[in-house]
Amino acid sequence: MDGNRRKFLKIILIGGGTFIVGKIFNPLFSGFLNNPPAKISLPEKTGPESFRVSENNKILSIYDNSGEEIFQIDKEA
Fold first, then answer.
1. Given a cut of 70, is residue 20 above it in pLDDT?
2. Mean pLDDT, the chain, as a whole number?
3. What is the dihedral of CA 47, 37, 68, 75, to 10 degrees?
4. Tens of pLDDT along 40-65?
5. Coil, strand or helix: which one is 12?
6. What strand order describes the sheet that includes 59-63?
7. Of 77, 75, 69, which is closest to residue 57 (Cα–Cα)?
8. SS3 49
9. Which residues pair with 72 in a beta bridge?
10. Which is nearest to 52 in space by CA: 42, 44, 64, 60?
């Protein structure tokens, strides 16, 4: 038997076995390895009324409903 053929058949056999074992054990281990995604809490109001825009000659600022500045654009640049 040719040595290259033997190596090729060995690689095909190992690869196929790995694929089949992965298909069998993936559902068993997926629950243990993957953490459930964290829930993201959204603000109560999610619309244009939940933001406040402040503008002067140099800066355009956007604030959320708690009053914290979340975005700022420099007009002169």
1. yes
2. 79
3. -70
4. 665 565 566 678 888 888 888 888 88
5. helix
6. 52-55, 59-63, 69-74
7. 75
8. helix
9. 61
10. 64
Task: Tell me if 62 sits within 8 A of 50, measured CB to CB.
Answer: no
Cβ contact 30:37 at 8 Å: no
Asked if the model's pLDDT at residue 36 lies above 70, the reply is: no
Query: Which token pair is 49?
Result: 């009324």
Radius of gyration in angstroms for the set of CA atoms belonging to the chain, rounded to a whole number: 29
d(CA 50, CA 27): 43
Better-scored residue on pLDDT, 26 or 39: 26
Contacts from 66-71 at CB under 8 Å and sequence distance 24+?
A: none
- Taking CA atoms, 61 is separated from 12, 22, 73, in Å, by 61, 52, 6
The residue type of 28 is L
Distance CA(3)–CA(24), nearest Å, equals 32
